Amino acid sequence: MTLFRLECKTHIKTLLTWIVVVGVLTLGLVSLFPAMKDMGLQQMDLKSMPKDMLKAFNLSDMAALATIKGYFGYEYQYVMIATGIFAAMLGTNALAREEAEGTIGYLYAQPITRLSIVGSKMLANSLLYTLYWAVSMAIAFLGCILFKESGASVHELFKSFAQLAFSGWVMGLTFLVFGFLISAFLSTNKSATSLSLGIVFLTFILGVVGKMNDDFQALVFFSPVDTALPSTVFKNGIEWKYIVTDLIVIIVSCLLTFWSYKRKDLKV
Amino acid sequence: MPVIELSHISKRFGKFVAVNDLSFSVEQGEFFGFIGPNGAGKSTTMNMMLNFIKRNGGEISLLGKSVPQHDLDVKKRIGYVPSDVRFYPQLRVQDLIRYTLDFHHMEGDQAEIDRYCELFQIDRKKKFGDLSLGNKKKVALVCALIHHPELIIMDEPTNGLDPLMHARLFRVLKDKQEQGATIFLSSHNLKEVEDYCSKVAFIRSGQLVGVEDLSQVNKKMKIVTLKGSKLPFDKMKAIGATCIKKEEQEARFLYEGGLAQLFSTLSNLSTDLEDVTVANRDLEEQFMSMYECQEGERL
């Protein structure tokens, strides 16, 4: 519990920064919806673009951009990528930073097991991510209510956002716990940011390739971002086959993290 | 019952053998010194004791319990001062002290904390990252002492401390020793080891050179330094003196026999000698002779 508190206190500023930046960005994007709709965004002619490419960038249904759900679904996919990076960075830094900054020497001189170190850090970072995601979703939902087109159902919007909140939460936890697994093998956090970016973009690209080519559709299973994109969730609801895949990754990464960290020689 | 018992422990990093078949024990209430040149394996040994790193062989028992099996129980009763103090820089000193007590599930004695902070002149409101090297060390010392450990393990604790704080630290440690605590001190400051430790273990190239009782050995051993153009090696050998250093016009001998015999011999040789010095063998001399020997082996 002590390490849990310490970890939360250490990251509270980072959490607030991310919430403020993402919140302002979300409100800014959503507030543009009425003006974009009036400009006739949905009537843009993208027929000259390859269909697969439009599909890959979630632009296959231009008419949907005239609704707040469709517009938000398109704009918010970039925030989803940023969210994945935030979650992955929390994970990859969690254990490696202690060794890089030498604070592991203090921590491990205290009566706390390695399993407790990993467990407390995982819980604390999961809570931080959950808070970030809950506040981000609340801001996004309120923004959509404020700027929705006339006639859009609030109840329907709430239902869609509830599904998105769940899918996005699982997506973030997947990156976070996978980041922990990487962190358990690192002895410095110098490469944590680049690794986080790499993981998120690589898996996102796998999802794009999976969507573009039916032969590679299985690749979508390796893309937590793609399966949690607002446009996908608003259209198909929660797709449990992808959620179960994410949960399997979470459980396996979790077990491997505990196993490897217990055997690790700490760099002090 | 030994408080520290290392039995044939070894550690390899790839092909490099950092510690090789190291065994010694430290009894309860001892002020035990652990010395050796840089890279001898002191920190690696301590890291294995604290289970920071896994050993490749051997057994470690602390406070009667094997490590790492009883790591948690043992760490509740240990205070550790690292050589390079790197605590959480964003935390204030008072928070670090609070967290340390929380990790030990202790409320802590506020009067005692106040006393330590006053003694070591620690500003509790400052952030740890803003402290100087010496002040960081003082915070580490307080964090290692506030939970009343039975075993205090220190790696270069006086590095960065001014002479006043140095003296205060050893006064506190002596008090702790009188209260029954065992102190394990790794240091390059041979004077402080000699002044405060009752026993000392020498380590070289990852192997134990010996464990010596400082209260016994050094008083009996004399270092005789002779200067002159005709140095009497044969006559010194005849009285049991061992030559430990030989230069063109100077030689140093280790002598363990009676002083009457030594001075009688030196008196007879006085005409051939330019200068004679007889001194107790101090730890520095012992360390230097071992270090030079190691360098010789490497060459």
Automatic annotation (TrEMBL), chain A:
The keyword Zinc-finger does not apply. Keywords: Membrane, Transmembrane, Transmembrane helix. It holds the Pfam family ABC2_membrane_2. It comes from the Bacteria. The chain crosses the membrane at residues 15-35, 78-96, 127-148, 160-185, 192-210, 240-261. This is ABC transporter permease subunit. It comes from Sporolactobacillus shoreicorticis.
UniProtKB/TrEMBL annotation, chain B:
Signal peptide: none annotated. SUPFAM superfamilies: P-loop containing nucleoside triphosphate hydrolases. InterPro entries: AAA+_ATPase, ABC_transporter-like_ATP-bd, ABC_transporter-like_CS, ABC_transporter_ATP-binding, P-loop_NTPase. GO terms for molecular function: ATP binding. The keyword Lipoprotein does not apply. The keyword Transport applies. PROSITE patterns: ABC_TRANSPORTER_1, ABC_TRANSPORTER_2. Keywords: ATP-binding, Nucleotide-binding, Transport. Residues 4-230 form the ABC transporter domain. It comes from the Bacteria. Pfam families: ABC_tran. Gene3D superfamilies: P-loop containing nucleotide triphosphate hydrolases (3.40.50.300). Belongs to the ABC transporter superfamily. This is ABC transporter ATP-binding protein. It comes from Sporolactobacillus shoreicorticis.
